[in-house]
Amino acid sequence: MMNSGKPVELVTRANFKFTLNENAISYFTSSGFQDMDVAVVTIAGPGRYGKSFILNFFLRYATHRYSEGHNPDDWLKDLNRPLTGFPWEKESERTSTAINMWPEFFVCNKTNGQKICIIFLDTQTGDERNTSAAEYSCIYAICSMISSVLILNVGSSIQETYLQQIEVFAEYGKMAIADSGVKPYQQLLFLVRDWRSPFQYPYGFDGGQLYLKQYLDSESEDRKAVKELTSPRENIPNAFQDIQCFLMPRPGEVATYGISKEFQGSLKGIDPKFVSNLGVLVPKILSPENLIAKTINGQKVNVKELYVHLMKWVDLFNGPTMPVPTSMFNATVEANNEAAKENALNWFKEEVSKSTGKNYMDEEKLKKTLMNLENLALKKFDEYHKMGGSKYSQPHRDSLQLTLKIVRENCEEENANLAHPWAKLMREWGNRMCKIGQAVGFLLFILVVNDFLAYLEIHKLNEVAGRKIPVMEFTFAATLGFILYVYLTYE
């Protein structure tokens, strides 16, 4: 339940280094979620503008509809309920940088029967005075890479600074499009808080789109001659598949940040216009028909595959400056191929388990089945929409093939142990007898050598005495003993 949990630090930053919380992997590899398609809703932006405050209403909707199964039309009916979820009361005092994750993953059952897991991320940053432009760019880049919807929460209006910070990593989009023809990032939503000109551009999506179109117009006379103004307006649309804008009114005097210490986030203390627009904004993002599944290179990824990519991306941003687009591309390619390999290997293991069971299977039939599944797993890897071409994918394919071979051989060995209730015992007995045979053979060899030495000694004595010895008989016995030793030893 939403009001019983606390956010989990997913990514932290200190001394120019981003660190992925290793304990968070358990959420992404949980058997209940790891194979589901995933939608990631992230809110980012400078401090002091109520990011966590508004994200908690997204949590409330998801809890009401997906966890508790209530009528989605009733999610704003309780006017006295305090606002819980991500801590929001002291947002302006934060100075550290982090990406926090809500520990409950929500499951949406779409009308076509498909299940999709919903993850919420909240970014923690200081305000513009305590956070560098490079740090904002890194946070925005990581969030854009991992999210299906990135909400950029800004105050009063969109600023040039925000566009410039986004453009820094939007350059990577050119390489991604050249490789696959697909824009790398999905939806970017500018959420403009405390909008002051509703008569010029009305609240909501309609007014927001008009405002955004005017603001991103690179052909206006006052921008055409200035590269710093035209460049982000050309590059950002080429990096995101969809860009939208929503204009939000002020939440009211009681709810305005810092006005009332007694305010607990209940709707009765919030301006009705704000509540009304919440009723439009949140379902537009989270209702089943609008929910956007996370894709990379045009291919849907599941929860576990998303974590594989996140590990590569976080490592990429460990430095005082933004990585170059080539590094971003290579990291994504590497993660993409790792996910393809993991996907094929997991499929192979599941199919082997289904096909073989726990009973003995005819060895030839088993071998044929496993080889067929191995070929299908490699085909699955080949058909996965990977970036970078065969130059990048071949080493991963070779590694997969080796792993599949090991799994196959282990399976064949386990099956052999099931051949007959007495088979394992007989093999163990045979192994012991072989060791005994080797010992006997060695003993015979010693006897042969000893007899040969004795023969030489006797031969000398007999020569002195003038007597003959049965050379042929002795040679035959010695040869037979040696052959028996060799046979028992090497069989």
From TrEMBL:
InterPro entries: G_GB1_RHD3_dom, Guanylate-bd_C_sf, Guanylate-bd_N, P-loop_NTPase
Residues spanning the membrane: 436-458, 470-488
Taxonomic superkingdom: Eukaryota
Domain GB1/RHD3-type G residue range list: 35-290
Gene Ontology molecular function terms on file: GTP binding; GTPase activity
Keywords of this entry: GTP-binding, Hydrolase, Membrane, Nucleotide-binding, Transmembrane, Transmembrane helix
Similarity section: Belongs to the TRAFAC class dynamin-like GTPase superfamily. GB1/RHD3 GTPase family.
Name of the protein in its database record: Atlastin
